[in-house]
Amino acid sequence: MSRxxxxxxxxxxxxxxxxxxxxxxxxxxxxxxxxxxxDLRLEPLQLDLESPWGMDFVDEQHLLITQQGGxxxxxxxxxxxxxxxxxxxxxxxxxxxxxxxxxxxxxxGGPVVYLSYTHADDEGYTxxxxxxxxxxxxxxxxxxxxxxxxYYDTKYHFGSRLLIIDDYLFITVGDRGNRxxxxxxxxxxGSVMRIYKDGRVPGDNPFVGRDxxxxxxxxYGHRNPQGMARHPDxxxxxxxxxPRGGDELNRLVAGTNYGWPIITYGEExxxxxxxxxxxxxxxxxxxxxxxxxxxxxxxxFYRGDVYPGWSDSVLSGALALTHLNRVELxxxxxxxxxxxxxxxxxxxxDIHVSPDGQVYxxxxxxxxxxxxxx
Length: 374
Ligand SMILES: [Ca+2]
Fold this sequence. Notes:
By secondary structure, the protein is mostly beta strands. The chain has a single domain, classed as TolB, C-terminal domain (Neuraminidase), CATH 2.120.10.30. It is 2% helix and 43% strand. It contains 1 helix and 25 strands. Strands 1-2-25-24-23 form a 5-stranded antiparallel sheet, with no helix packed on it. A 4-stranded antiparallel sheet has the order 3-4-5-6, with no helix packed on it. Strands 7-8-9-10 form a 4-stranded antiparallel sheet, with no helix packed on it. Strand 21 and strand 22 form a beta hairpin. The chain is globular, with a radius of gyration of 20 Å. The two termini are 13 Å apart. Calcium ion binds next to loops.
């Protein structure tokens, strides 16, 4: 459904400018880096980011953006000025790991910044979460809140997204490429955690008191959740990468097993069945699954009126199938699916709704604002 100006016509319009020389963006219109699909346009705000992974708003005019290599950037939207934030804990870029998500909590004492990132020790690598107080362009009083156990020596499936609802911090961690970990409650891998914002474990978490389980675990049986958002009804949702086929949108319920790798709608990359099938008693079904995989990353619920017809939607980024994915929310659950900018060749990594109700995306090496001025 994309109506991008083709590379051929761009080459005619901008012969010699190299507009289609394999860059990560497809340029259209005014050749300013905008990407157009029908009446929708991605307006570029930054185009030279290095592997941007997560973002959040400090306020209407200021954003924080993580780069997977380990830097946290502060962006002033009005001026476009980028400043690297000092005092960020050291993240190890390793395969799919690095500096991952950022979340800003607005407290009475000023903004508090939560970060998820890959931490290394002698045993390997894992996902860690820390927070610090943002003072100008520096993090102060940084404290580690959570370290997923065990450390493990692979490059895969670190997660990780962060979400705060009331006093609770939710954290996603992938299976680290060892799929059996996702069914093993003695490991954090392949689970979504729920802790207090200061790192303490809530006494009413579903596995508290069990000798064979980590008390931070809220749900398990996940492969690699890289999107998480609060549904308008207050529930926590994640999207997660399937293997070959079988990406999922899941609505989380405390203590629930989401099935990986026993049930899945995907198969082995080389072909062939994984696990026991697509359904089993005691394991939750996804709200939606994608075959083939789109490679979901980033997630937001949209309820505003900026984009006609979009009110009550769930948005996901798509990395492999390079598009912005929208699924309608209806009274009966999820409705029709729509795909935007699917000719863009942009890997959509993260999505946020700004305080004033506009959609921002990190895609490719850019930060874009979604507008209706296509
Ligand atoms: Ca599942």
